[in-house]
Specification:
Strand content: under 5%
Distance between the termini: 47 Å
Shape: elongated
Number of helices: 9
Largest sheet: none
Length: 172
């Protein structure tokens, strides 16, 4: 996002929140802190915020809305659905690949064979969703701080399984 594009975003916000004082320092701060984001994504996020927020959004709120508004967001329930499909198609003797790194990391935390052989799938689903949400919040935080998707995914694949395994011990 260029400074001119950031200026357009701030102009839209200024029009939507006329009581908010927006000086040159504010424009500079917003432009600096949003410049690593895609201008179209920022404008869409600002539109959503203007429709739902009564107050002038902070830089953090805009960055968070950009991340949550992306089309590639996989929910925990969708990830669990993929796990269930892989149980049926791959089985416990092969190692599946998942479309989202958070799904693979959550499966790794619980253990693929444990998931496949567990008789209490309701409890397994709950533990998987807890692990997935932990990984998801870590990824969202990395993206919000400016990491690109692949960098955030590497953080999840490399660091989070051990942490989540401690938080959600499996029957290994």
């Amino acid at each position: 996002m260029t400074r001119d594009e950031a200026g357009k975003v701030l102009s839209a916000l200024r029009a939507a929140y006329p009581r908010q004082q927006v000086g040159a320092d504010t424009v500079l701060a917003y432009a600096t802190m949003l410049e690593d984001l895609d201008a179209r994504e920022v404008m869409e996020a600002v539109k959503r915020l203007m429709a739902t927020s009564r107050f002038f959004p902070t830089i953090a709120e805009i960055r968070q809305e950009v991340v949550t508004g992306r089309d590639d967001v996989v929910t925990g329930e969708q990830a669990w659905g993929e796990v269930v499909r892989k149980i049926g198609s791959v089985g416990s003797y092969q190692t599946p690949e998942f479309s989202d790194p958070r799904t693979g990391a959550a499966v790794q935390c619980l253990g693929w064979k444990n998931i496949c052989r567990d008789e209490n799938m309701t409890a397994t689903r709950a533990r998987f969703l807890d692990a997935f949400r932990s990984l998801d919040s870590k990824r969202a935080r990395a993206l919000q701080l400016g990491a690109h998707g692949t960098e955030a995914d590497k953080q999840i694949s490399g660091q989070m399984p051990e942490l989540v395994a401690k938080l959600f011990p499996s029957k290994r």
